[in-house]
């Protein structure tokens, strides 16, 4: 083995602690960088694989008028389309009178395949398969399941033959809503299609086999589906209109014929022949009537949905996008901190080897041969840490997160190696280690052997700012004066320590900030903005008083505000947004005490303008408008009008537009009547909410009710989904922070070992020697923590901005727990490092340290 190669391995052995520290720091940086960046794609790939295996529909049609066989053929006439019609309806069943999404099972169905978790599929007339989520309600195999009499089934009682998951219901906590029972669908169920008293199917599932290799959340997939569905919708609608027109026409002719026959029979004339002659002149008119009627019925009976509209599907994609957004910022910053400390450590390592480099140069070794020794050391540490971090991060963090997604159906875990990311990570690891070594070695090799073999001359002392403040400086002790002089004497170490501590504090603070801010979204939306607990929709033409009478019977009822509500599309400056909720008070221009409108600019209370509109902040951002701009409001009923924006209100969830009663009548017409109640309730449990909803929906005056607790639960789930990622952030940030402190303190001691040995020889006690150097670390730690607060807030704000969804704003919120945890951890780490330093200084060989290299 060549002498320089032996020297390389001897360097690693003699400085094993530093070598391992470099490896660990690089490993942590790469692990988090790759691991979190790979989590978003892993979440999407896992769901894509799962729904592909179970043949989830790309789109579906819900038709109250039914889906005919001709419509199925019309859909399949489009190239690359697979279509299946299914019997489906909402019914009431089970021990607790639950709302159930009931499907007719047909053997051989290829779209939305059931995935059995236990038991078997319904092969007999009396068998039923329940949603796996129904197990939470205590249902078991072999039990009897009963539907209510109003379900209109061939039989009411079934035997539970199995439990299954469906790709159409990926989230266990949400099954959608219905206009029966308490309005909340609890689970789905399948019985033989023959047991459903339905003449035709009510749901049409559409699938595009050629698009199944694409990411279901990508714009490329969505655009391709939209393009194909445009033609499918045209053909299905045209066929539906044709079928419905024929049925309406036949019914009109039948009614007209019967009427003519009755009139002619009374006159004593031959009914059949004369009646036929009597209606012939009207056939053309009948056809026109049938066409108009068919179009009206069809326009209100067809509801198209995509995968994004399925319960939990959009939330899952949003969660993956939020993790991806966080991964674009947090791990990068984490890696920069790790790289910075590694760069400092490697630089110090090469500087310590000055005498060795000078000796090699004096012995005649070339620059490249000498440099190769240290470059190999740095490259080996960088590659070793990088490779461990790459595979540990790529294969562990995504799997941990996937396994913690317990609110979703079991997913087929797909965690692919992200090769471009791996290559980038290893490149960055080598830049942090090999790059540092190359820069320092190059500088050292420019000096002469004689200069290198002597210690570098110590920096000359300079007067610092504190010395010029005589009253303060004169009151400091000798040790304090030395510490403050040294702080400013070694400026590079001061900057590195502050940056390291600030970075660690900021990372820990950001971890808490992400979770606290997402949680605060619900708190501020349903505490500061919205004060009602339920929205009650009134039946057409029904007066609010009837609904109030029902509500008043509930002990939880406090008050109800009457408003006019509508769903509208808002457009401005080439941008548009659908599904915006419009609210207008039935009287006056104030929504208090149900909604608080406060300006985003001044936080002042906003009053609804007589002829303008107030919109929420996220809506204003989406439309790129501000106060004074004009926008177009078009309701789903066809009314439209232009309004001037008179104010932009704070809001965190959803899109809202607020009008005065006068402005609303300008939009909807003077005949428009209040159709909604905003209800304030005392706090009550989910079961109490369900009981109240059943009571309300059983009354003809009310067609729908929704509780804000549902939205709160969604936001809570959103926060819960990020918990594993946040926990990983905090743990790894804490480890990195400790290593940063330990490494920088180690470098500090190594650089000043002669100075420390000198004061030890002069009679300083061990504790005084430790505090001589640790006092500087404590001061820098406190300064670093303060800077970390500022940096943590900036980093959290940027991540939240990146993670915002189309309809949700995350207010920057970091709890006192986050600040205390970050502060106490940093102080604890400083205490541990001080103790380790004390132990090391007790064992210092003063004679060896003070030997002259000359």
List the helices and strands and how they pair.
Layout (H helix, E strand, L loop, with lengths): L2 H12 L1 H38 L5 E9 L1 H8 L5 E5 L1 E6 L4 E8 L9 E5 L7 E5 L12 E3 L10 E9 L19 E8 L8 E7 L11 H49 L3 H9 L3 H19 E5 L6 H15 L2 H23 L1 H9 L4 H37 L15 H27 L3 H4 L12 H4 L1 H4 L4 H12 L1 H39 L4 E5 L5 H8 L5 E16 L2 E11 L26 E5 H7 L6 E6 L4 E10 L6 E3 L2 H8 L7 E6 L4 H12 L4 E6 H44 L1 H9 L4 H38 L12 H27 L3 H5 L4
Parallel strand pairs: 4-9, 6-8, 14-18, 15-17
Antiparallel strand pairs: 1-10, 1-11, 2-10, 3-4, 5-8, 6-9, 7-8, 12-19, 12-20, 13-14, 13-16, 13-19, 15-18, 16-17
Amount of beta strand: 15-25%
Class based on secondary structure composition and strand pairing: alpha+beta
Number of helices: 25
Measured on Cα atoms, how large is the radius of gyration? 36 Å
Describe the structure in your own words:
By secondary structure, the chain is α+β, with helices and mostly antiparallel strands. The protein is 55% helix and 16% strand. Strands 3, 4, 5, 6, 7, 8 and 9 form a 7-stranded mixed sheet that branches. A hairpin with a 4-residue loop joins strand 16 and strand 17. Helix 4 runs antiparallel to helix 6, helix 21 packs parallel to helix 24 and helix 23 runs antiparallel to helix 24. The radius of gyration is 36 Å and the shape is elongated.
Please describe the structure with a list of short key phrases separated by commas or semicolons.
6-stranded mixed beta barrel, alpha+beta
In summary, what is this structure?
With 854 residues, this protein is of the alpha+beta class. It contains 25 helices and 20 strands.
